[in-house]
Amino acid sequence: MFPNLAQLVRYRGLIQSLVARELKARYRGSVLGFFWSFVNPLLLLLVYTFVFSVVLPGGAPPDVRPYSVFLFAGLLPWTWFSTSLIEAANSLIAGGNLIKKVLFPAEVLPTVSVLANLVHFCLGLPILALFIIYYRIPLSLTELAWFPIVILVQLTLTLGLAYLVAALTVHFRDIKDILVNLLTLWFFTTPIIYSMNDAPKGARRFLNLNPFTHLAISYQEILFYRGPYGHWKWLLALWAASILVFLFGYFVFDRLRDSFAEEV
Questions:
Q1: Whose CA is closest to 109, among 56, 174, 52, 167?
Q2: pLDDT for 5-40, tens place per residue?
Q3: Domain boundaries, position 66
Q4: Within 13 A of 195's CA, how many CA atoms are on the CB side?
Q5: How many domains does the chain have?
Q6: How far apart are CA 25 and CA 38, in angstroms?
Q7: pLDDT digits (tens, 9 = 90+) for 234-264
Q8: Helices (DSSP H) in 95-227: which residue ranges?
């Protein structure tokens, strides 16, 4: 397993080329092109803000104002996470012609799915920055120093789960549909549209078992809440757990590697 994992570094040029191809293919033929990377998260933000500010004005948590910034701080990384897993689940099947080539490293395909959506996440950050500037939310350099670490933790966790679902979907096609429904449930059990402080005390223990809870809270504390970043112990614990998830996901992927060409 580890020799194959180490070879991923050798394929960085291939990964970079495929990520660029994926980004170009996604908006090929569209008028706005890459501008959709800014428009899509903005439209999603406006929809949620409209629902909780106009349609259900009492639905927004009272302790999070402005709600749009709070929402976007969690919604943007969630979009990266969920879209990566959905696309990774289908990546080996969609890339069957590449998988059947003897020398092609199969793990490149789910990696490309995750990294391409990381690029979209980064392209959405300027929209979030504009909202932060508009609402004059003070940011601390000390807190911002944790931001790339949070991204790295999420990247580690997402890659591990991407390898796992990609390998299993080749053998069990139902996983794609199960994953979509599971992610919907996962979204509502993560404090993104509501504050962790507003969750019932009995539910907080359950929410703390959700790994994305600690990513969402980390983004919110760094980009929204005023005060020191106090969730770092949870984040470091999640990083350790994410490394284990990454190794387990790649282990399953590596064990099933020889069957990919036959199943796709």
A1: 167
A2: 777 777 788 888 889 888 877 766 665 566 766 777
A3: 2-263
A4: 17
A5: 1
A6: 17
A7: 999 999 999 999 999 999 999 998 888 777 6
A8: 96-99, 108-134, 141-144, 147-171, 175-188, 201-208, 211-223
